[in-house]
Amino acid sequence: MAQIITMPRLSDTMTEGVVATWLKKVGDTIKTGDILAEIETDKATMEFESFHDGVLLHIGIQEGQSAPVDSLLAIIGTAGEDISALLSGGTATETKEEKVVEETKSVTSSAVEMPAGVKVVTMPRLSDTMTTGTVATWLKKVGDAVKEGDILAEIETDKATMEFESFNAGTLLYIGVQEGDSAPVDTILAILGPAGTDVSGIAANYKVGAVVEAPKAEEVKEVAQAVVVTEQATSNRVFASPLAKKIAQDKGINLSQVKGSGENGRIVKSDVENFSPSAVATPTQAVAEATSAVAAVKPFVPAGEVFQEEIKNSQMRKTIARRLSESKFTAPHYYLTIELDMDNAIASRNMINGLPETKVSFNDMVIKASAMALKKHPQVNSQWREDAMVINHHVNIGVAVAVEDGLMVPVLKFTDQMSLTQIGANVKDLAGKAKSKKIQPAEMEGSTFTISNLGMFGIQSFTSIINQPNSAILSVGAIIEKPVVKNGQIVVGNTMTVTLACDHRTVDGATGAQFLQTFKAFMENPVTMLA
């Protein structure tokens, strides 16, 4: 029977793919594991292998063409088979798992209404750019009574971890996404309802806007077993996910010895990672290996244990990686570095902090000087668009804050209108929220310029990647005490190095240099910032 092959999702952010090269042509015989084509994703060009045997009957996407994920890529079947019905049917793919579902639906296809009082809770969209959420922590468990307003779970978005409260009352009957797992927005997250309500049918067949009666477990099992038996009778293929195959190959594990925990016994990643060869060794093999190990006398070879730890990427880490990559490879960066005389800044700060209930940091002074310089050089405070350059005449400065999962950039709105003490108080408040994961998405949006300060770590100078859609980011180093020349004499002075990264599409070299000159004047004469 002909099989439809769709454009695969070969990366976590892939929405469409480009067929770089077809390695098979219509009429070619295909075996399981053969490379069909090279697919260009949003990250790399990757080989795409076939999971079916047969003849390549149709190619749906030509070389050089792009198409969304799940579009019709190819059809594999028996030579001479009529595929006109599949071609007219669009991109629906009939895999063996889907065949099981379709056959079981034919047994029980009548629709049922949602039981009284039952509410389906879906993965919420907690930020404007959120497409997927991760359940960081469940604060309720199945069987718990839930009141309207209770916090159900902490959801990790692409920007922050946020509390998600219930808008319904009832008993938590079902959890659809376990702690640490990710799921797209609108995926079933939980089901609430009267205690004791059977929601297994809803959980198994939930679709937005419709609930279909779940097939009986016995019927699903019978059909699934029939498909598995048929497959085993016609093929010796070991059913495993591509990732499981790759891990097994890297570790030298024979997949035929691994017991699959996936659907219909399919081997998945965790099965391979948790596989222990000793678990399948016979007693005779174990004795022979032990005897051989004791008897063998070899020269001592120093060896240590290879230890690796795999840490699942958080949504925040994925978003940071994506946005920084996009910025680095789309915006033509260039860098301007200048050294500041910080003696007057140190004296001014000591004087300001001598006042009652007043505390100003050097970072606050950098933010204030940047805001005032941006008002004088608004082109640095700009954004690039394909059709126009946007000049921002308001100043919203983003301040990079290191947090456990990566980096957040809280935004000080209308920074140029703030005093030094107001800047200090706002930075402290927003940084505290960011580190405690209580910051709101709105507090991280709308920046027109960004500052990254690593001076507190002793870093003298560094460069940063522009935080798009900003056109520039200022990297601030540590204050260093060293010999300097003043009035023709070598004296001990305090200096600080700053580097401005600019997008050459919007900020010319001379414009960036003039901005730094103005910034330097404010920093070296802080009294001018108080006028």
From TrEMBL:
PROSITE patterns: BIOTINYL_LIPOYL, LIPOYL, PSBD. This is Dihydrolipoamide acetyltransferase component of pyruvate dehydrogenase complex. Belongs to the 2-oxoacid dehydrogenase family. SUPFAM superfamilies: CoA-dependent acyltransferases, Peripheral subunit-binding domain of 2-oxo acid dehydrogenase complex, Single hybrid motif. It comes from Flavobacterium aquaticum. Its cofactor is (R)-lipoate. One of its GO terms (molecular function) is acyltransferase activity. InterPro entries: 2-oxoA_DH_lipoyl-BS (IPR003016), 2-oxoacid_DH_actylTfrase (IPR001078), Biotin_lipoyl (IPR000089), CAT-like_dom_sf (IPR023213), E2/Pdx1 (IPR045257), E3-bd_dom_sf (IPR036625), PSBD (IPR004167), Single_hybrid_motif (IPR011053). Keywords: Acyltransferase, Lipoyl, Pyruvate, Transferase.
